[in-house]
Amino acid sequence: MRFAFVAAAVAWGFSSPLAAEPVGQFDDHADIGEPSHEGAVTLDGESYRITGGGANIWGEADVFHYAWTQRSGDLHISADIAFEGEGGDPHRKAGVMIRQNLTPASPYADVMVHGDGLVALQYREVQDGPTRQITSAGPHRGAVRLEREGDFVYFSVEGEDGALEHAGGSFRIPFQAPYLVGLAVSAHDDAVSETAMFSDVTLDVPQLAYVPDTGYAAQVEATLELMEVGGAQSRRVIRHFDGKIEAPNWSLDGETLYYNSGGRIYAIPVGGGESVEIDTGRHVDNNNDHGLSPDGTQMVISDQIEPDNLSRIHIVTLDGTQPVREIVNDPDARSYWHGWSPDGQTLAYVRVGANDDSYDIWAADVDTREISPLVVAPGVDDGPEYSPDGRHLYFNSTRSGAMALWRADADGSNPVQLTHDPARRDWFPHISPDGRWIAYISFGEDIALTDHPPNREDVQLRLLPTDGSAEPVILTRLFGGQGTINVPSWSPDSSRIAFVSYRLKR
Questions:
Q1: How many CA atoms lie within 13 A of 422 on its CB side?
Q2: How many CA atoms lie less than 13 Å away from 442 in the CB half-sphere?
Q3: What distance lies between CA 380 and its chain's CA centroid?
Q4: Which residue from 217, 252, 255 is spatially nearest to 238, judged by alpha carbons?
Q5: Using CA atoms, how far apart are residues 217 and 323, in angstroms rounded to an integer?
Q6: Which residue has the higher pLDDT, 321 or 112?
Q7: How far apart are CA 195 and CA 187, in angstroms?
Q8: Over pLDDT 70: what percentage of the chain?
Q9: Which of 148, 178, 204 is the last residue of a domain?
Q10: How confident is the model at residue 18 (pLDDT cuts 50, 70, 90)?
């Protein structure tokens, strides 16, 4: 096969010792890997008919047919894609792709249309590494677009009105210039070949407006996502929003997610659909520190509707049958909820002094409203959350000189440091319901030690075993920060986490 000779001669390079075979706006095409059936590309007017064999574009190595050209910098590539022939493997793939090199294990990002109509942004972050994906909330309708902007890739899909619309989700993968960009087809069954037509193919350099301040004032789109913890670590878009949403929680039955937006709290089905506002009475200036009671019938909210703008903590019933109850009203501090003890009796919250720089962890009794200090020390202590057995309290703190995760007894005693990388800013430990894992958000050194701002590039979601048996692993990289995963966000069966990724409007 042609590519076998190319690969042997030039390894990772782009130039071929054989004559290139240009087709349309692409410089060359060839099989990547060694499929049993050789692929081909023909030009039909301005459309491309591509046939490819191969077992898959997935895992640690890909086998498919590719038509490509060299580019650098920001780029959008789009195409209207349709398979030829009925049936075939439901996982056969046709799509648009950016690839670092021509080896089967190259880093890449693509938008793949599957035979069963699934659309996904796939990516391999490093050479010889695994493949991950972000699946679209909607089915394939025709056109798709892969969008490289800076070190991030995004994707768009055709909406019901026939126009391309942002599908949500993003991943940070810094391609080196030059890279390859083009069209790809894989049969997913190496015993056969599959064919797809690519029409209205465009390669455009986006004109992106400069955003001088990416902080709280920046306008963003938001994507509510789920991620499998373990296995393929796939991400799935639940819904893409034109504006900002923050801080998803799960219902006890695993069927509903709750988030805040514009000061109000909303519920949305895990399978996607329309959002429904939760009745929080006159408390409609909620921040992103909210969550459900252990029995799943009540929600705690942190609201700042009063003229002094201090955050206060209240409890509401999800069915609206009981009046809103005020739990914490501290005239000298802003109070932000983060944890609810498994016995339902105690709220753990962050008390931020209104007239000083103190960030301490306090407790409030749900029945008596009595408050008391739990973790008080110089620096910042934040993000308290109880273990499922109620024995421990997890939090993040600067007491070691870095922002790290800690564990203490439930009364705040015997603190133990859990993360130790001084180059990271680790925030908001969330404990899986089975007690085995800590999911948390981690910022880079470009962030001030005590800050967790929105709209940052070097943001990672990480996973750490609660027993300390292994080092943290990176679940995914995204554009996000404040609002991404502030509050408890594990599914009841400990298999998935919910989070929010963002994209600047420009």
A1: 3
A2: 23
A3: 26
A4: 255
A5: 34
A6: 112
A7: 8
A8: 96
A9: 204
A10: low
- Scored b (16 or more CB within 10 A) or e, 427-466 reads bbbbbbbeeebbbbbbbeeebeeeebebbbbbbbbbbbeb
Q: Report the number of distinct structural domains present in the chain.
A: 2
Residue 439: both structure tokens together: 């999911």
Residue at 214 is within a domain:
no
Place of tokens 């030690």: 449
Q: The tokens 């209104």 sit on which residue?
A: 354
Residue 216, token pair as written in the block: 């709280």
Q: What CATH number does residue 113 fall under?
A: 2.60.120.200
Rounded CA-CA distance 151/481 in Å is 17
CA distances to 278, 287, 363, 383 from 316, in Å: 9, 15, 18, 21
Task: Examine the domain organization and report whether 185 and 261 are in the same domain.
Answer: no
Residue owning tokens 């680790």: 426
Summarised one tens digit per residue, pLDDT across range 210-220 is: 999 999 999 99
Q: What is the DSSP letter of 5?
A: H
Mean pLDDT over all residues of the chain? 94
Is there a single domain that holds both residue 14 and residue 88?
Answer: yes
| DSSP alpha helix (H) spans, 330-420 | none
| Domain around 17 | 2-204
- Give the 3-state secondary structure of residue 376: coil
d(Cα 487, Cα 383) in Å, to the nearest integer? 8
Residues 6+ apart with CB under 8 A from 161: none
Question: Burial level of 308, CB count in 10 A (0-12/13-18/19+)?
Answer: exposed
Q: What are phi and psi of 362, to 5 degrees?
A: -125, 170
CA-CA distance, 117 to 83, in Å (whole number)?
Answer: 10
- Is 186 found in the same domain as 293? no
Q: Count the neighbouring beta carbons within 10 Å of the beta carbon of residue 151.
A: 14
Token representation of residue 258: 């709750």
